[in-house]
Amino acid sequence: MSNPHFFDMNLMRRFMRVFFYLLYHPFAFAYDFVAAFVSFGQWKNWGRSILPFISGTRILELGHGPGHLQRFLSDFGLILFGLDESTQMIRLAKKRIGKKQKLTRGLAQHLPFTDESFSSVISTFPTEYIFDSETLSEIRRCLQSGGRLIVLLAAFPSNGFLKWLYKVTGESPEALDESIKSKMKEPFVKAGLHTETQILDVKSSRLFVVIAEKR
Q1: How many structural domains are present in the chain?
Q2: Disulfide check for 62: which of 36, 123, 168, 170 has CB 3.0–4.6 Å away?
Q3: Residue 172's domain is classified under what CATH number?
Q4: 156-204, pLDDT tens digit by residue?
Q5: For the whole model, what pTM was predicted?
């Protein structure tokens, strides 16, 4: 007999894949509105929270989206690169930041960069591609020795309604026990990266960050 909860989870995953495809491609123009709505205006601040973890000055952002983080980081004297699979997102990002950063269309599983190109690779709220062994192998190849992969995986707002919604769906920070954190780290560890997780308390939210270092 099939497990109805398992079926519902699979259905939800399929729905989310379709939703994100539409949001990143034909409806990319609505991305900022949707992101601001679901985060109660905290989306940009969440992304900026990874700044203290960045190592070195040559930075690659995977899935740069409409370019908000690229624009923010440009004020810190960093040499910035960005990669996104969506032509629409690259177009939006270039309108926002001009030609200051080098933005490339491509897949994280096949990074078009030479070995040891970057001191840090960053990604905020990536989809499941970030756990793919090919993605992590490519990131490791492109990281310098001592370089870091910094991934902002999830945010848990403390707003009353959203807090209730996250708890109902099993995505509340309370659900992140040690076994789940260990499972989240596993793909990064298998890729040969020294990995730790952190929970950051910021305004009205808690953030779940993975920091994986090439040693």
Answers
A1: 1
A2: 123
A3: 3.40.50.150
A4: 776 544 444 444 344 544 545 566 677 889 999 999 999 999 988 887 7
A5: 0.78
Residue 116 structural domain: 4-213
* Pairing of β 194-202 and β 205-213: antiparallel
Model confidence pLDDT, tens digit, residues 124-145: 989 889 999 999 999 999 999 9
Measuring CA to CA, how many Å separate 66 from each of 3, 17, 24, 83, 93?
Answer: 39, 19, 9, 11, 4
